[in-house]
Amino acid sequence: MSDWDGSAVARLLGTAHPLIQAPMAGAQDAALAIAVARAGGLGSLPCAMLDAVQVEAQVDAFRAAVHAPLNLNFFCHPEPSRDPTREAAWMERLRPWYREWGVDADAAVSGGGRRAFDAEACALVERLRPEVVSFHFGLPEPRLLERVRAAGARVLGSATTVAEARWLVAHGCDAVIAQGSEAGGHRGMFLATDPAAQVGTFALVPQVVDAVDVPVVAAGGIGDARGIAAAFALGADGVQLGTAYLFCPEATIAPLHRAALRRADDAGTALTNVFSGRPARGLINRAMRELGPLSAIAPEFPLAGTALAPLRAKAEAAGSADFQPLWAGQAAALGREESAEALTRCLAAEAQARLAR
Which of 73-82, 156-165, 326-335 has the lowest mean pLDDT? Predict the structure, then answer.
């Protein structure tokens, strides 16, 4: 069993506790990261949906509020190749809903709303010098990754299989986040292609621990101290939690998403690609039920959400979450509504007590 007080993850990250707040694009800003950092965990900022000015403002807010390590998270997805035939088929599939909701079919916005890590993002890291940089969907090209490391950042990457974990370590990761299939939000898959073959957290973690020689962070389906202690018993040196923090007032999720989380149960989520083009776990709603939840015609990531955007806006204005991605993991029912600082302190204290038994 890994040791909490001597955790390799806490030493690597420079935090009091080996707890990482998952970066959740569109669901948080600096306030959540600040609260977690104040309690001794690693606060994270998702950057894939922000421009450079926005990232810099969020980092400035964090630095002004707390003296603690900060994680900036970026996506490393390949640039999508436009397929007019596929996009037309997708639009045709959505057309009945456009008519139902009285939405102009020409109202779809362009682009996918998520940027891959590039030279501009790398220059931003060099300027802001975060203590930690984490990547989803693999890693950037070696030249850019070397610049990130030269800026002084510890590098973390998400793996959904043992092969991905080994690849991340071979290409320069200081620690691996073993993301089990229970996790909410986007799967970090980059070598794996079959969502049905994704491994659960508590099968994945010990196999990754055995396969790599860097610290391993468990992620997915961990919602309380019992899950944290179990991850440590399986050899993890740290834990990353996302859905648990969505219940906190610092989370910026929409009221409809918050209400859906309060109704969550163990069987209420599924993996879907209909909102972005990549598999991601969320609470089941109409779009997921009627389009998939996994659709063969969904455009490549991150383009699938383009045609859904005007439908989502119209439905949300009418109080419906039919077309809204309600990202959540399978342990959402364990969530408790308290401040992120209080939650982090409670999780740390309760986990330590369990591990000391």
Answer: 73-82
